[in-house]
Amino acid sequence: MDMNQYLEVFIEESREHLQNVNDQLMRFEKNTDDLGYVNEIFRSAHTLKGMSATMGFDDLAQLTHKMENVLDAVRNHQLDVHTEVLDALFESVDALEIMVQSISEGGDGQLDVKLLVQKLQRIVAEEPVAQHAASSIEYDELVQTLLSQTADQGFNAFEITVQLERTCLLKAARAYMVFDVLEQAGDIIKSAPTVQDIEQEKFESSFIVILVTNESQEKLQASIMEVSEVESVKIAAVPVKKETEMEELVSQQIAAAIQEVTVSAPSKSPVEEKRQPSNNKTIRVNIDRLDSLMNLFEELVIDRGRLEQISKELNNSELDETVERMSRISGDLQTIILNMRMVPVETVFNRFPRMVRQLSKDLGKQIELQIVGADTELDRTVIDEIGDPLVHLLRNAVDHGIEMPQARLENGKNEKGTIRLKAYHSGNHVFIDLEDDGAGINREKVLQKALDRRIIDEKTAETLTDKQVYELIFASGFSTAEQISDVSGRGVGLDVVKNTIESLGGSVTIDSNEGYGSRFSIQLPLTLSIISALLVQMSEERYALPLSSIIETAIVQPKEVMHVHGQKVIDFRGAIIPLIDLKELFTVPNSVQADHYSVVIVKKGEKTAGLIVDSFIGQQEIVLKSLGHYLPGVFAISGATILGDGQVALIIDCNALIK
Q1: Of residues 351, 344, 499, the one with CA closest to residue 432
Q2: Under DSSP, is residue 118 helix (H, G, I), strand (E, B) or coil?
Q3: Which of 114, 380, 544, 616 has most Cβ atoms within 10 angstroms of its Cβ?
């Protein structure tokens, strides 16, 4: 059986199981009385071991097997859970992740795990004889196939464990004599350690052999015990499936591994799901193919808009009906394509609890990471890029945001610090907030550092608001840390964070309260190339407002408009909201004052505002096009679109207008 075809599935499934082990270990560490977590970890480790053995990755299989021993002892109340146990399990997961990463990069997945295996063996406190035993022998696909073929021919298969006396000086010679006895009785399929290691005496005092033979267990036992300095022999029959059964078993193992949904079939009704629970079909699609599909569909949407425009002008009923049907079908197709590209941010967030645990332990701090909104979805291309910026912000929060336990107690705080990572949708954007209840940012310290490094001058420093001062830490190489640690320096590298976020069409802002904590807020576009928008008219120009940012539209009479501190405001359903005249903001020429205000009410999180336009045109699906490298960072404009009549309309970024 060619296993290469299953390699990608194996890698993805392995990562899923390792992530689950990580998550469950984190939960178990907080509540070691709940063995349900251990059972869940054991299941993932057991599945990973089986897949690794089937694929021929012996180091992976060996390490997960030793993890199983520890987990089994814990769930059977044979082992008390303490820091050493948890650290060894976490260390094992790290090693497994390294091996899986090696395999994903085309490597062989091999890693020297002898010391880690020994640590796990010490933890389970095996019996004296077992302490000297070789690592348990793995029944990989080749061994299983050979055994199944010999079973069809009527042979017996035995797993033979030979223990030499601990005082034996010529272990290799004694092992050779045992091998000679066994080879006269049948065929040796595999040994642990390998024959080469045994010849070089790279084993303690025992070894295991898989033997296919016609001899009985009793006769084999007697023959081996006749060899000098053999202390004991254990022989166990190996249950062997016939070849046809073996093929079916391997097929079932591979089929069971294919679980991740990249592109799923249309959902069924609850009745259908109950009647056919196992009929969910999935396939894997390369992201480049989805990009190509999206690009083609963008052109289709532009042509669809043109057809709709022509249909209105010709007023032909048959054409109208055809265009309407095409619009419905293409709308459904659009929804499917966009949803295929959306991925929950939990794929990035999942690795952070473990990272924070290790960092806080290294620094001697107590920190709780709270994650909110992990199911918030974002385009795959953005998901792939935001991991590193978030890692850097988290490391800064752990290292220089959260204080040491004693310092927190002295300041009247709980000795355990809290970092809150929250993701949520707002309009056509996703916001990710990273907030800590640590020391906050010292305004004067930041200002002085900026002056020392000549980032700003004295005159400018006197005019800056707190928020503008905090923004200074995004300057290249800026740091307020007295001493740069191995983990981070508060501010070091934040220019890279800002540049990465902005390269994705997003932005990052800072808010801080010295002594109480800081909050970094990242705004990211969904990067959906096709969006629903409200087209509006301003003089001779047309603009598009993303429908996801709009609450409603309204006609406001001049007498309803009030002025507060020079700002136009209105009473909108009991709340006072500001009005923004887009014609003034974008300096639209030939503007004519109407006898009423056409207002679009938009939102950003909990904040709202009213945008004044000349008139509403209507809702339309539009293709978001970048303004390119020649017009970067245009205020409140996120892109442009081509309308049905071939004209260009700018797309307004409502979030940029609401502060």
Answers
A1: 344
A2: helix
A3: 544
Cβ atoms of 365 and 402 closer than 8 Å: yes
Q: Whole-angstrom Cα distance, residue 160 to residue 46?
A: 24
> Which two three-digit tokens encode residue 17?
């199981």
Contact 419, 356 (CB under 8 A): yes
Do residues 566 and 515 touch, judged by C-beta distance below 8 A? no
pTM equals: 0.55
Asked if 585 contacts 491 with a C-beta cutoff of 8 angstroms, the reply is no
Determine how many CB atoms are found less than 10 A away from the CB of residue 364: 9
pLDDT digits (tens, 9 = 90+) for 310-320: 888 888 888 88
CB proximity list for 264: less than 8 A, separation 6 or greater: 280, 281, 282
Provide the H-helix boundaries in 315-404.
Answer: 317-341, 346-349, 352-363, 380-396
| Beta bridge partners of residue 521, listed in sequence order | 433, 509
Q: How far is CA 635 from CA 70, 190, 203, 493, 570, in A?
A: 58, 70, 70, 26, 25
pLDDT (tens digit, 9 = 90+) per residue, 260-299?
333 333 344 333 333 344 344 566 677 778 778 877 887 8
Tokens representing 97 are: 């992740």
CA Rg value for the chain: 33
What angle in degrees, to the nearest 10, is found between the helix axes of 36-55 and 141-152? 70
Q: HSE of 141 in the Cβ direction (CA atoms, 13 Å)?
A: 17
H or E element: which one contains 567? strand 567-572
Q: How far apart are CA 450 and CA 466, in angstroms?
A: 14
Cα–Cα distance measured from residue 367 to residue 438, given in angstroms and rounded to the nearest whole number: 10
In this structure, the number of other CB atoms found within 10 A of the CB of residue 263 comes to: 13
DSSP lists the bridge partners of residue 423 as 432
Residue 409: partners with Cβ closer than 8 Å, 6 or more residues away: 415
- β-partners of residue 73 are none
Distance of CA 649 to the CA centre of its chain: 36
Q: Strand, helix or coil at 587?
A: coil
Place of tokens 């004052």: 593
pLDDT in tens, 396-455: 899 889 999 999 999 999 999 999 999 998 766 789 999 999 999 988 888 888 888 888
Catalytic site positions: 46, 68, 396
Residue type for position 20: N
User: Which of 381, 471, 472, 382 lies closest to 423 in space, CA to CA?
Assistant: 382
Q: In this structure, how many other beta carbons lie within 10 angstroms of the beta carbon of residue 206?
A: 23
